[in-house]
Design a protein that fits this description.
The chain has 8 helices and 4 strands; from the N terminus they run βαβααααααββα. The protein has 191 residues and is an alpha+beta fold. The chain is globular and about 45 Å long.
Length: 191
């Protein structure tokens, strides 16, 4: 089954959900940009500016690779980013983004990340995600094959990854809800 995953590489919730998604058997993820910098519309707190600037550079590379049909390279790049940030307890930075592209074997990564002409593709992908699941959503957005609209999330608990049987059960539930024309929202508070 095909699934399009719109993500911002600076978001820890998005990272956890991506690890769940890649663990589900027989699901082919297609990776697309979702920009928390665009979502904040220029009202980014000072403490997040460097992180979101690094994410913007990473998303340029995501969209350039997506334009070439290189989903596997995007997946490897994002895995490197997440391993170097969320798994290591570090903040996303330009150095981590460049090192992640290098480690994923993307030879022209830095050049693409510096090419602002990819900003239009990032914006278009971001707007597609918002139009498909929004308004009032954030990263991640998941669009499942056969669903009329995408969903925000699912957001999974910190500290543990679901076992394979639970990961598949969550997938089956999300697919059923995403494909339902009647379903609107399901949420509970975080503890």
């Amino acid at each position: 089954m095909e699934a399009t995953y719109f993500f911002d590489p600076s978001c820890p919730h998005t990272w956890r959900t991506s690890r769940w998604l890649v663990s589900v058997p027989n699901v082919t993820p297609h990776w697309r940009a979702f920009s928390l910098a665009l979502l904040s519309d220029g009202e980014t707190p000072d403490e997040l500016r460097a992180k979101l600037a690094a994410a913007t550079r990473a998303l340029r590379l995501v969209e350039a690779l997506q334009a070439d049909g290189r989903d596997a390279d995007i997946g490897a790049f994002y895995t490197e980013i997440g391993t170097r940030t969320f798994e290591a307890g570090a903040d996303l930075s330009d150095d981590i983004v460049v090192a992640s592209a290098d480690a994923a074997g993307i030879a022209d990564g830095k050049k693409i990340m510096d090419d602002e002409s990819w900003d239009d593709a990032v914006r278009e992908s971001h707007e597609t995600a918002l139009a498909s699941a929004g308004p009032d959503i954030g990263s991640p957005v998941l669009w499942i094959e056969g669903a009329a609209r995408a969903v925000h999330g699912p957001v999974l608990a910190a500290g543990r990854r679901p076992a394979s049987n639970e990961a598949l059960a969550i997938w089956d539930a999300v697919v059923s809800l995403a494909r339902s024309e009647s379903f609107w929202e399901l949420k509970r508070g975080r503890r």
